[in-house]
Protein: tRNA pseudouridine synthase D
Amino acid sequence: MDLEKFIKRRPADFIVEEVLPFKPQEKGKYKLYELKKSNLSTLQVVRFIASLLKIKPSEIGFAGLKDKIAVTTQYITLPESVNFLENISYLYHGGRWIKADKINFENQTGFSMKFTGFTQTPLSLGDNLGNRFIIKIDNIDKDRRKVFYSNLEVVKKFGCANYFGEQRFGSVKGRNDFIFLYLLKGNIEKAMKIYFSIKGNIKNWGKWEALYRDLKGKLEQYERDLILGLKRGLPPEKAVRILPKNIRLMFNFAFQSYMWNEYLRKYIEAKYPFKRVSFIHNWKLSFYTEVYDIEYLKNLQIPYTGKEFLIEDKTLKEIIKRTLEEHSITEDLFDKELIGIKVLTDGLRNAVFFPEEFKIVQKTKNTITVKFFLPAGSYATILLRNLLF
Structure:
């Protein structure tokens, strides 16, 4: 059963508010804006603001990518030298941006920005403390309600497995169709074909004018530029670099996030009683139902590759080694330079998280509305999959 049956029926049913670890200052090198949006991705808004201000998207700082089908509040930074209004709102309708006096976030697609002060440094990914959520869960029958309350007791006691959520996998079309793996094999044209197939029909691949017409209404400016570059005879190896760096990095992040999820899934299955829950692309996630060493588990951090961070847990070490081998990832690929980015870099991520300030704020016969806080990098959709299945 899919999670979409229960959540995000309307953007206003999924409210996210970012929490920063600092307060705005009266002076600084960067302007800090509060950005509130509905039914738009963070990158959609960032790219539009960049085009409006005639700056590079990379000059706009933000701490995290917020859900698209939601009403979200987060913060962005702009260089102090950029001249921009203190308050601005835009609707998005029919593929066009329309300036507005205000946005009705419950039933309109759009965003508003409000100047809040200054910072000395730009925001970058992970700079937030976390996010507050208010989520309405729909279609809750009597049996599902029992499952929810039973699972909630487990989460209160043992926390929740800290898997990456579906937002990390927007560039993955199918179960094993990672753009990153085609790039790693040097098949850059195949990688680009998959990328553009997510946008629409690519039957005219190679007939660049026809492909441009087929996809034009669905493309960002840099994607149009890429197709026009191919039309001019630009080789795929150079054309792919027209994509912004953050998009190219997402190809790497999607694969590394999948691998990390696999490490955690296999680790849970090796050590604890567990339940399997369906995820996107017919992948599975496993959630423990009992933990005998919770103090150890809640302090466990799992690396992405194990190159920089040594793995002392023998079970985990063997799982990571075996999973890398299954996907033909060898140590010589760690930190490799690929399409202008460094890939397969190491890092640490907590194996579990504990939702804070969890409250059921409203109940009806068929709905439960919950409120909670999650630390930066943890996903509400993962918590909800654990609670509902």
Observations:
- Residues 22-127 form a domain with the Alpha-Beta Plaits fold (CATH 3.30.70.3160).
